[in-house]
Amino acid sequence: MKTYKISEAVVKRLPIYLRFLNELAFADIQTVSSKELGDKLDLNPAQIRKDLAHFGDFGKKGIGYDVGYLIEQIRHILKLDTPINVALIGAGNLGHALSNYNMYHRDSMRIVAVFDQVPEKVGQMINNLEILPTAQLIQKVRELKIRVGIITVPAIEAQNVANQLVEAGIEAILNFAPIIIKVPVKVRVHHADFTTELHSLAYYLD
Amino acid sequence: MKTYKISEAVVKRLPIYLRFLNELAFADIQTVSSKELGDKLDLNPAQIRKDLAHFGDFGKKGIGYDVGYLIEQIRHILKLDTPINVALIGAGNLGHALSNYNMYHRDSMRIVAVFDQVPEKVGQMINNLEILPTAQLIQKVRELKIRVGIITVPAIEAQNVANQLVEAGIEAILNFAPIIIKVPVKVRVHHADFTTELHSLAYYLD
DNA sequence: AGGCTTTTGTGTTTTCTTTCACATGAGATT
DNA sequence: AATCTCATGTGAAAGAAAACACAAAAGCCT
Asked: From the list B42, B80, B195, which residue is nearest A202 (CB)?
């Protein structure tokens, strides 16, 4: 187990390993090698071994990795073995799509509150959660000890929502709005903007 | 103008520049420097200059970049100055969210066909497009000269859909399903999976 | 029991990406 | 016209990430 800083690239791959390992576990496969992982995930086996070796010696020479054990370890590394409350701000189609996430994945990150500014939406149910007015955002985030916010509001509102989340003491934000939001360095922001993904795809057309 | 291979990292930033430049143009701002861009987009100014310099000398010393001209150039680099037909496969909440994209952005990538496997959904309208049965996928992709596919079906169906897209002669795929899909090397695939984004965020919580 | 095969963990090398730092040129100012 | 200020484009340096290659260990086979 090393203590130096783990690179962002490594951290982004861990959930990909985890997802595939869960598939293997579901199929009752006990063991997997870095080569098999690499083949399935389009990654170099040495890279996978090095990624994992940052956190401990999880494998067995000549055998590979025990699927169940590795799942347990990665879940722990990613802090997915303790409950994390998540807020969703913006109950549009994208918000609805993300809220379904709760139903499919029994892992520890759970959307526990949904907010929207539009009065007509407030009070409606979305996956067993009542949509709350954004005015209650700060209060509820504190009350429910919400640590992560998912922003799915229009770009024009995104920075304002982010400011409120920060004020409420949020630790991390996943932003889907097509704008770079500014937050204090202590708050971690990931941008998930599909329009930029789509536009960069166009570059590779003949 | 250089002719060597442009790195993926550069291509991923171009749409981010473009988006912000469009904001500037909308606000009638004529000129922008790499420093201003860097401040707004959280990037190093030298990196922005180098990114752009790969494609030509777009700036003026002492002045910066002409916003309108730079928009034009980046749109051309990304091939966003010619129409590109896009298919959306999967008319769930996420599919609906992405289809709205057509309404907001008057750029050249347009969703021209939506497919779903579920019989109840077929025939319904989604943003002025009739949902077609997935059985018609290959035929319609060819007929409408669709070059890009967006996959928003469940993971279990994603590879099958990808295979059909490839068979129909698609050039690029944006995959939202939580699985790594396999396609021939000539087909470009970008994975846009929000669950892995969310899980990697958890790592950075205290 | 000894050799064979497999696959890990990692030191080393290579490749890729970012950042620095500065000469150059464009316009503004006096 | 000379000087000043600003911001580009880029060579060089630094830093980060990926890939190579191999010793070491674990189980299997004869």
From this structure: B80
